[in-house]
């Protein structure tokens, strides 16, 4: 047996791994699912969207196809814009609270103070999705 024949036999005797077959086109139900999920969570990533489709719809879709369909539905990715948390009516309440604290001579022995670093109490990512026709959403 020649050397080429032996290597050919070795290759053909290997177990063939089943490839993960992904859909190339999406049906209307999957497209509406993507639209609903992005509308509910504007910070959802393509990978998370892919996992939810696999779990809920039992549809195997690549991340690139997911992102492409999201762009076709006019969902654009923008950076998250932050705005101040204090509303105008709360400024007066804050001022009166501070003057009361000064009158009471509070020493704040039971408090922890931080510098100007960012504290996050909720999930805020650097990127978010919005409809092309809508203005950017500001997060406090």
The major beta sheet can be summarized as:
2 strands, antiparallel
General shape: elongated
Domains (count):
1
The whole-angstrom Rg is 27 Å
Individual helix count:
5
SSE sequence, one letter per element: HHHHEEHEE
Strand content: 5-15%
Please give the order of strands in the largest beta sheet.
1-3
Please describe what this structure looks like:
- By secondary structure, this protein is mostly helical.
- It is 45% helix and 10% strand.
- Helix 3 crosses helix 4.
- The chain is elongated, with a radius of gyration of 27 Å.
Q: Which labels suit this protein?
A:
about 140 residues, mainly alpha, two-stranded antiparallel sheet, two-stranded parallel sheet, 4 strands, about 45% helix
SSE blueprint:
Layout: H1 3-13, H2 28-40, H3 46-57, H4 63-72, E1 75-79, E2 81-82, H5 88-104, E3 127-131, E4 138-139
Parallel strand pairs: 2-4
Antiparallel strand pairs: 1-3
Helix pairs in contact: 3-4
């Amino acid at each position: 047996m020649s050397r080429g024949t032996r290597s050919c036999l070795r290759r053909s005797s290997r177990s063939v791994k089943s490839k993960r077959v992904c859909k190339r086109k999406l049906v209307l139900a999957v497209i509406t699912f993507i639209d609903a999920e992005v509308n509910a969570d504007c910070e959802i990533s393509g990978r998370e969207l892919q996992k939810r489709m696999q779990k809920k719809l039992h549809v195997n879709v690549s991340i690139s196809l997911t992102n492409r369909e999201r762009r076709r539905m006019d969902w654009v990715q923008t950076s998250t814009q932050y705005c101040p948390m204090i509303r105008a009516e709360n400024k007066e309440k804050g001022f009166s609270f501070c003057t009361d604290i000064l009158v009471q001579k509070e020493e704040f022995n039971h408090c922890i103070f931080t510098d100007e670093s960012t504290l996050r109490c909720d999930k805020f990512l650097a990127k978010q999705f919005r409809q092309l026709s809508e203005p950017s959403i500001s997060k406090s």
